[in-house]
Design brief:
The structure holds 2 protein chains of 2 kinds. Chain A is mostly helical. Chain A has one domain. Chain A contains 8 helices and no strands. Chain A starts with a helix and ends in a 15-residue tail after the last helix. The mean pLDDT of chain A is 90. Classes of the chains: A mainly alpha, B mainly alpha.
Chain lengths: 171, 159
């Protein structure tokens, strides 16, 4: 399957995204919002992961669960703003190995969330404020943190692999 | 300006610019630490505003070490990045605005948490503290945003 960047860019032009992103402040504004979303994700999911790993004992994991809607909102903000970058400059992202790895880590993080709810969520929520999380939950939390750290790293190095000095997995 | 030129031409500054990894390592460390710094501080400030009221506020303050480490890494990586392109940052007024906003946000957050740790764990934060929490969040997000705008407002890259 191939994705044609021209089709994506034509769509972006038809709905005004391309024009907006090419205004003086369009790109930095969206970039700022993207980073605010990422920060909130670290502040919610990251804090929850750290608690499961043993930091901040005394804070109930069930309570931190209630931060997850905020984490989901942060994720949605990051996804929405991130998609504006791709629509405005698809060839700079789709064929970029750093971007591909970033998306790969996001997929692993998503599967990890499903694994968390399937395996560990109930027991984590039942744990007391000073309790230790079960090993499976700790592994999931460590993987989650690792994924988000990797997402930040690969997001940062996207500019290092800008075309034409690029390669991709499917080209 | 002369001193800036001397610093820019010095070995360490040149190495950061010319190395294949040094600048990106600094950028990654700064992004990660700033993300954790603003994210964690914002979540604790949102707790002051009444989010997840089931957990006593002082308990949330146990995440303070995350913040302390984030501040430390942000400062070191920030100096690293400025060392690579000193003129780009130091000749941009927005750089000083960013620093001032972040320092104000962190000072406000620190004073807020100090007051929060003295609160009765079961009681809600008073209105004055809530206002302070809103202002802290706004300042931290503004600091983050102004950092992103630095790259787009710099008029000088190298001297």
């Amino acid at each position: 399957m191939t994705i044609d960047p021209h089709v994506i860019q034509a769509f972006a032009k038809s709905i005004g995204v391309y024009q907006f992103m090419n205004t003086t402040w369009g790109w930095p504004l969206v970039e700022s919002l993207h980073f605010v979303g990422l920060s909130m994700l670290l502040g919610t999911v990251g804090v929850f992961d750290l608690r499961v790993l043993g930091l901040g004992r005394g804070v109930s994991m069930a309570t931190l669960h209630r931060l997850l809607p905020l984490g989901v909102a942060a994720y949605a903000l990051s996804m929405a703003t991130g998609s504006l970058f791709i629509m405005a400059m698809p060839d700079q992202y789709l064929f970029n190995p750093a971007f591909q790895l970033k998306i790969g880590c996001m997929i692993v993080a998503g599967i990890n969330v499903i694994a968390y709810f399937a395996i560990a969520s109930r027991r984590v929520r039942a744990a007391g404020p000073d309790d230790d999380a079960l090993l499976a939950a700790k592994i999931i939390a460590a993987l989650s943190l690792a994924c988000w750290i990797a997402v930040i790293i690969f997001g940062r190095v996207i500019t290092l692999f800008r075309p034409p000095w690029h390669w991709c997995f499917w080209c | 300006m002369e001193q800036l030129q001397v610093f820019q031409d010095a070995g360490f500054s040149s190495w950061i610019r010319e190395s294949e990894w040094a600048l990106f390592a600094g950028l990654i460390a700064h992004t990660f630490s700033m993300g954790f710094l603003v994210g964690t501080a914002t979540v604790i400030n949102l707790r002051v505003l009444g989010l997840v009221p089931q957990t006593p506020l002082p308990m949330f303050l146990r995440f303070r070490p995350v913040l302390v480490w984030s501040i430390a890494v942000s400062i070191v990586s920030g100096i690293w990045l400025v060392a690579g392109y000193p003129a780009k940052a130091l000749l941009n007024p927005l750089f000083y605005i960013k620093l001032a906003i972040l320092v104000a946000g962190l000072v406000l957050t620190r004073s807020l948490w100090r007051r929060a740790s003295e609160l009765d764990p079961t009681s809600a934060a008073p209105m004055a503290m809530r206002r302070q929490a809103v202002l802290s969040v706004m300042l931290l997000v503004a600091g983050l945003t102004s950092g992103k705008f630095l790259a787009y407002t710099a008029k000088v890259l190298l001297l």
